[in-house]
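Journal club prep — side note

Before the paper discussion, L.F. wants everyone to see what a predicted structure for a comparable chain looks like in token form. Sequence:
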Amino acid sequence: MDFDDQLELEHLLFYERKCRVCDQKKDLMEGFYLIRKGRGTLPSAYSYECKECTKNRILKKRKDKGLKSVWEYPDW
């Protein structure tokens, strides 16, 4: 890693981004998921939805397996 790469990484450490869902400003590397592996040093490689909002969205969209597992043959 040469000096130029260290400068780019240092700028990312202090970069903040505003979440599109909750409108809170959070640290880029700690608060957002890296979605493009090849460009880890660019701010555009991180998602625009924070980690907490992503977790909440996935939990809400997840199907409830408990109700679907109790299935009975229809009585026609």
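L.F.'s comment for the group: The first strand starts at residue 16 and ends at 18. Keep this in mind when we get to the figures.
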